[in-house]
Amino acid sequence: MDLIDLHVHTTASDGSLSPKEVVRHAKERGLKAIAITDHDTVEGVPEALEEGRRVGIEVVEGVELSVDSPKGTCHLLGYLLDPLDDAFREKLRVVQRARQERNLRMIKRLKELGVDLTLEEVRAIAPHGQLCRPHFALAMVKKGYVATVDEAFERYLRKGGPAYVEKFKFTPEEAIESIRRAGGVPVLAHPFTLELDKEGLDRFLKALKERGLEGLEVYYPDHTREQRELYRALAQKYDLAVTGGTDFHGSSKEGIELGIGSGDMALPYTILEALKERRE
Predict the structure, then answer these.
(1) Which of 65, 116, 128, 170 has the most Cβ atoms closer than 10 angstroms to its Cβ?
(2) What is the set of domains in the chain, with CATH numbers?
């Protein structure tokens, strides 16, 4: 069976492997296709596409956008979009400018907490991609303020933590519209992070469907069997494409391997074919 992974991060955001390295790793693992879905950027997509053509693996253009939600955390995945679309890239530049301001505020908060970290030291961890909280955590480990990345998040960087700064988020409508205008297919990622009960998730999906949502990430390493069954039923109810992926970050997210997640994932190529039909 031809296998895929539709949720993959690179050094363009908070992954540990470059776009080229991710593509080579996918080839080594025998995958037929992967989607590059970095946070709020498509900068890694061209390099991945080129390497995919070179080694013979299909690379799907993608992105993962942070979206405002009444509860929990909401991300939207965009697939098969044009990474060179000017209007879409301008939307992403707005996010990236907001990220730069957020990073400066986190540096200030850390200093107030006794963690003497500079933006240059964080940039040394990720010289080519945009800076994210895992890069701050790695810099803190390097300087000896914490022993592990998990400790950095638990003590300082987790949502609601003393050094956490809220990030810029699109409205659901804006994110869906931006993806669709760039020729892409918008998909709700890992719905469990919304922290909604069954009825709340049903209402949320209904509203997003009315705004142009086309898919739901049913298969994800942290989803329980019961959650997968619920998400499949909701996808069928609202005529949403069923998707899945590992949320692979390389060494930045231990215990998750490309293509198989925590060891029990096997996503057939037919999932990607169904997504392509949505675009057509």
Answers:
(1) 65
(2) 3-88+176-279 (3.20.20.140), 92-157 (1.10.150)
